[in-house]
User: Fold this.
Amino acid sequence: MIKIQTTTESIESKGGLILAGKVAVKSGLKDIKSLIVTNAGTIITSLFGLMVEGRSDFESMGEKRGSLFFKEALGLAHVYAKETVRLYLERMAPEADTIIGQLRESTVKILRKAPMHGLWIKGKHYLPVDIDTTTMDNSKSNKEGVSRTYQGFDGYHPIVAYAGKEGYMLDSELRPGSQHCQKGTVEFIKGIIPRLGSIKKSGRILFRMDGGNDSFDTLEAVTAREGHYCIIKRNKRRENDEEWLTIAKRYGELAEPRKGKKVWVGAVQMHPQRKDEILEDIMCVFEVTERKTDRDGNRFLIPEIEVQSWWTNLICEAEKVIELYHGHATSEQFHSELKHDMGIERLPSGKFAVNRILFTVAMNAYNTLRLLGQKSIEPESRKMLKRKRLVKVIRDLICIAGKLIKHGRNLIFKINEKEPMLPVFLRLDAVLDSP
Assistant:
């Protein structure tokens, strides 16, 4: 039987904060300025460290008050009490746009160091950028900005842009729950395009978006520059299914997956229009399904017709366009990692401006965990393991236990030599120390 004893030695269970702290230094989080709060960078970095652990509430911030390890790992001059952190954030609220702008610049610095992979289409490389909204359940709260979402509960309705197959957060924006997904999206797109250029991961960009963003303005924004391509789900609006079936039979390729079900896939020279304007480079790809029987062979009285279509300016087969759009669904997994793996769904403040700042801090913490996760994958395993989920990064890398020892003026963090993740930890530490 194991007996329990106490010790005065400093045992730490979140050794991975050392790695996260080095990312924070290189991204300039401590250098964030505020005209009202002189130590804004310290407050932001403290919250960043908390979110890297998978926590975001002010009560957890209070637990770090006396932690020498937390302070030194993140390079902080002070670790403030939870009440002080909340107060300073509320003082920064009038400067939310300025603070968020600096946090976005920090995100770009992280992404420049990140291993990011794209898509190969007909021998050409494209960086996918998936723009999508999600809902954050904040029911039974009186927080500012919380309102009824399209999913039927009270909360927020943020928009997020993910870059690369790994799903790095390129940008994010917290929105009230009742805000329509298209409102403000064109401005959001125009804001991320300069940052895409500064990352310089790929000359060609492929934007993928859902049908809620099917508008002339959106299509114009994502294809305004040379080398920018899009796949956006079309809204059928008042179009007739029978007419689409006629078009599909004329222009599409027929496939019959089973008896009683026929599918036509193809492209048609249909272009987005607004009054006298037309986007001639963008055409319509379609998939029309006609079902005369169900899977068990029971015949329908009236055949079922299902129509799906997409806007795109990619020059490739219609089947490939549809396959690429289906890859956009992975953004739902990225949303889940942000909200649940990192505990960001219920933001702690009652003030909307403060939660806007916290949500952007979470973007930096998310990208840090993603970067550590992708760099931790051994080269020989990269072909099999494409992406490491954030909860696994927190469990494997952040939650590495060790003993903090003060020797003279130096602090030493000792990790058991039998720790399975020790070689990876040491490799990442060396990589992050390099220029």
User: Anything to note?
Assistant: Residues 10-109+348-433 form one domain. The first helix runs from residue 17 to 27. The chain has a mean pLDDT of 92.
